[in-house]
Write a structure and sequence with these properties.
Rossmann fold, Spore Coat Polysaccharide Biosynthesis Protein SpsA, Chain A, alpha/beta, 2 domains, 11 helices
């Protein structure tokens, strides 16, 4: 069956192996492609029926073929009713590409390049072993390395070069696209936030009388106020019932729903009550109990100290950590102030 044509760029994800370990990576690649505004269609090309089912579950089109990655991309192109001008090629087994990296590569093609590779700081790939733990070294000179998770190529250059983009295609322009700024989807009208680890620093202080307190950021409060003035719908959605959450909500004039073990159904109810689609909602969470909500919304985001499983699936991670300005960063991005 012919795959419908992509109106813009097409993200192609070749899955050359039926290795089950690849599935979480390419599922995340599908999610990243869905959140990249320039991507008009997503195609997973694989010979593995199990991988094909997972791809379909995540909203991708599927083409069945066998071969290495370059051959799979070629097979996918051959099955399209109309071939797109450019391709974003996401590698299934590499650490997940972000929407911003996809956009940076596709944008480079729009600036005249035939192909583009995303780059990572060279220091991000190196680790040092200290006395008792591994650590990334401090950033050094401006050295960059290829990010194997994402590349982009004009379809004509892909055919002329005979394969995937690993080196510049001789005789045609080439650009290495550095990581781009956050890509905020249009049409967002709401921000839903976890409390612990988002509006607080995820620590609890207990005095000798058993009274609990938490630490929050005044800057986050100002960011909330800016969103309220701009007409955004706002909600604190928390698993833990705690009077301090209610107190902070009253201070910020925010609706609070807490003691919620399964957050996604409550998120869906709140959105329906406020006549919002989930695509119009940004959600900020920091831990694994937020994954259901993060997968459902139009813009999933996380603070800089979020759980690694959360960072792998969100569209944007803030520089600031929870309770220390992360919400302010997101507010400024939503309002176009950053």
């Amino acid at each position: 069956m012919a795959v419908p044509a992509a109106p813009l760029a097409c993200a192609i994800i070749p899955v050359p192996s039926p290795d089950p370990a690849v599935v979480p990576w390419f599922a995340r690649a599908v999610l990243a492609a869905r959140r990249a505004p320039s991507i008009g269609a997503i195609l997973v090309v694989t010979a593995d029926r199990g991988a094909a089912r997972v791809a379909a579950d995540y909203g991708a089109q599927v083409a069945i073929a066998d071969g290495d990655s370059a051959a799979l991309v070629g097979h996918g192109l051959a099955q399209m009713a109309a071939v797109p001008d450019c391709l974003a090629i996401l590698q299934a087994g590499a650490p997940g590409a972000t929407p911003a990296q996809i956009e940076a590569c596709v944008a480079a093609l729009g600036q005249g390049a035939a192909s583009a590779l995303s780059l990572l700081p060279e220091a991000a790939r190196r680790w040092t072993l200290g006395a008792d733990r591994l650590a990334r070294p401090a950033p050094g000179p401006a050295l960059w390395c290829e990010n194997p998770a994402v590349a982009a190529v004009r379809t004509a250059a892909f055919h002329a070069g005979g394969g995937l983009v690993a080196e510049p295609v001789i005789g045609v322009p080439w650009i290495a696209a550095a990581p781009a700024a956050a890509v905020v989807p249009p049409g967002l009208r709401a921000l839903v936030m976890d409390f612990d680890g988002v509006l607080s620093d995820d620590l609890v202080h207990v005095d000798q009388n058993g009274i609990e307190t938490v630490s929050c950021s005044r800057g986050d409060g100002l960011g909330v106020g800016l969103l309220q003035k701009a007409g955004f719908a706002l909600l604190i959605l928390s698993k833990e019932p705690n009077p301090v959450v209610s107190a902070r909500g009253r201070k910020l004039k925010l609706e609070v729903r807490q003691g919620i073990d399964d957050k996604r159904p409550e998120l869906e109810r709140w959105a329906a009550e406020n006549r919002l689609t989930l695509d119009q909602v940004a959600y900020m969470g920091n831990d694994i109990n937020d994954l259901g909500c993060l997968a459902a919304v139009g813009w999933p985001v996380a603070p800089g100290d979020a759980h690694p499983a959360v960072k792998r699936v969100v569209a944007h991670v803030t520089d600031s950590v929870g309770g220390r300005g992360a919400v302010r960063e997101i507010a400024e991005l939503l309002l176009g102030l950053a």
